[in-house]
Amino acid sequence: MARTSDKRDAELVGLVNGATAEAAEALVSKLTLREKASLCSGASFWNLQSIKRLGLTGPNVSDGPHGVRRDLGSSHLGLDGSAPATCFPCACTLASSWDPTLAMLVGEALGRECLALGVSVLLGPGVNIKRHPLCGRNFEYFSEDPLLAGEFAASFVKGVQSQGVGTSIKHFAANNQEANRMTIDTQVDERTLREIYLPAFEAAVTRSQPWTVMCAYNRLNGQQCSEHDWLNNTLLRGEWGFEGLLLTDWGAIANRVKGLLAGIDLEMPSSAGVNDARIAAAVRSGALEEGVLDRAAARVVSLYLKSDAAKAAHASKEEGKEMHARHHALARRAAAESAVLLKNDGQLLPLGAGSGRVALIGGFATAPRYQGSGSSKVNSHTLDRPLDALRAAVEGGALVYAAGYEPGHAALDDALIDEAVAAASGADAAIILAGAPAERRRTEGGGAMDRLIAAVAAAQPRCVVVLSNGSPVLETYLSGQAGALALADLLFGAAC
After folding, report:
1. Which of 249, 265, 276, 384 is catalytic?
2. Strand ranges inside 328-428, DSSP E
3. Would the N or C end of the chain have less CB density within 10 A of its end CB?
């Protein structure tokens, strides 16, 4: 028997597909020049323009790629407090599962949370290739491998959009570093673009048709991505057959009229009417054909129609607590399936419930490193602590804790190291929670953490090291709000 949720998902897809381009074009034909121009930029930081006389209500868009960050404020950065949501493992973590179906399930869950929070388009996933280890948003991207990134991007998009919620694959294109990302000119020959930097975008577009694509801040071979005719019109729409809306990253527009000619339908956020006036003036002067504006406005209106269809199908928001519980369980499963066992000398893992006295070492035990920061940061409705999860997993609760270090402090305190060594030497096994900080400017710099690990390992040969980054070594990456429970499952055999 089909699940009720499966039936609802199918109904949502049917309703969304019913929002035809013809219906959008019919509505656009009723708009004035000023109204059409206004649709080409946002009304605020997170909402699109409304045309009340035609019943068009601007939908809401929201970050982020591993959890819905429905902003509750109105700061120009859009980084005010956000509504509680599930923080799933980051893209770098999910890709380490090598299971695209898992990405689809996470996408479906994110789509359901978007509906519950009134979000029409989720601004993700990020599918840029990991080119350099110091890129500050590598945790948001799936892989340095184009094939793997494309498989996960296509599955993630399909999952979210099965719920009647749009996605926005980003950042198009060749936006592979954060340093000077708004001004850099990325120089790449076409073969390299097609073999490395574009395949993940192509896979998502051709296999899953995301509702939107987000253009990048940078220049590509001397031309702004927001004005790049070959990239946006020839390749994305012409060669790949993209049918959706092309929008800017926030503030990425350079010349609004040139952007329209290059296929940019929507500028985000609001330009306070400045660029709307420039568009209208260009049409009146003959510098811009009105048909170009009509096409862009129709794509925007089509997004409104899809959003309205999904909202009509989502009749109730009463499943909040039940939904969060289900999604927390999925986050736990995803974290466990995505962890990577890098080394297991002597087959120490899994420890098993009867492992005797266990020393847990590391400040991440009480302040877990479970997600990145910036625009993707999620206000998780629940957060499991490794200290609590591992204490529950150890038979009889025979677990002793020593901080070893303070999260966020580059230098280590000798007294904390001594305390950690004492705890480890008096135990039957030691677990060290280590990893990289949220911000760093050099690839090296782990020497202080290495010193702690070496000291503890010398005192306790039965030593497990668990890394949280974006004698066995276990890499858990940034594993989301349920990462602690997944860690306990992994270390004590429940996930094996």
Report:
1. 249
2. 340-343, 358-361, 399-402
3. N
